[in-house]
Amino acid sequence: MEMVKYSFFLLSPHYGISPATTLSNIMQKLPLIFLSCLVACGQSSDQQTTTTVKDNTTTDAPATYYKTIGEIPVPEGYKRVPAGAGSFDEWARTIPLKKEKTVYLYNGTKKRNQAAQYAVVDIPTGKQDLQQCADVVMRLRAEYLFSHKKYNEIAFMDYTGKWYKWERGNDRPAFDRYLQTVFGWCGSASLEKQLTSVPDFNNIKAGDVLVQGGFPGHAMIVVDLAVNANGKKVYMMVQGYQPAQDMHVLVNPQSETGSPWYEVTNEKDITTPEWQFTQQNLKTW
């Protein structure tokens, strides 16, 4: 879920926005910022879970430590969908996980709701309240493309239609600054506009995004899939949330065992620990 992030950038040319461009964008975004403030003011800064799930943080570390997403076991009778060389699927299965299962906010405090995560991703959040939900989606997409030197594919659009394209090759410090700029100006509303709808949910694949654009809105990314002999699929997702916090692998709140796998069914609604989606919210790049 996203609240107001833009104010941090209004006077921040350090993050790659020229003064002239900043002024123009500010004027364009003022109605959006105002609307965002109206929505945000009525909500807690750390929203509690919207569904009932078992608290899985009786210990700081899970009974079994999985080092990467690819080590998380699939349900009985399932096998991971084969990943092509250089694909997002292949890369996502190497995403590192922390031993500790607690989710921390950007300022070092513990998130109040500790029941949403199956595992915590070992990728830094940063010290600002910027890397929230859609930002995590864009971060993982960008990191994958950057690691495979597909620099010309790294591009994100803000709500006004302005594109933020990466054009400096393998310059990691500049890339990190670029991501901060993207996080400041892009979000769930712009991501929903940028992505393409997936008409048939059965065609879900790793890298696809569940997104409801808004102020606030929410987004999460599919990082793995498995299938059984009958062709039935399950998928796994990673999310960030508001305030900015450790990105994490979600539990399925409808699973009695706290599984991170979600079944592809004919049910329209998709219930996650902190947001309700529908199958129509699935989009792809």
Helix content: 10-25%
How far the N terminus sits from the C terminus, by CA atoms, comes to: 20 Å
- Name the average pLDDT: 85
Detail the poorly predicted runs. 6-61
Oligomer: single chain
The radius of gyration is 18 Å
According to DSSP, the number of beta strands is: 13
Helix count equals 5
Briefly note the structural class of the backbone. alpha+beta
- Can you summarize the main beta sheet? 9 strands, antiparallel
Number of domains: 1
Strand content: 15-25%
Write the element-wise H/E pattern from the N-terminal end onward: HEHEHEEHHEEEEEEEEE
Label the overall shape.
globular
What features would you highlight for this structure?
two-stranded antiparallel ribbon, 22% helix, alpha+beta, 13 strands, 285 residues, 5 helices, 9-stranded antiparallel beta sheet
Strand and helix layout:
Layout: H1 19-40, E1 78-80, H2 88-92, E2 117-120, H3 133-147, E3 155-157, E4 163-165, H4 172-185, H5 188-194, E5 196-197, E6 209-212, E7 218-228, E8 233-239, E9 248-250, E10 262-263, E11 269-272, E12 275-278, E13 282-284
Antiparallel strand pairs: 1-7, 2-9, 3-4, 5-13, 6-7, 6-13, 7-8, 8-9, 8-10, 11-12
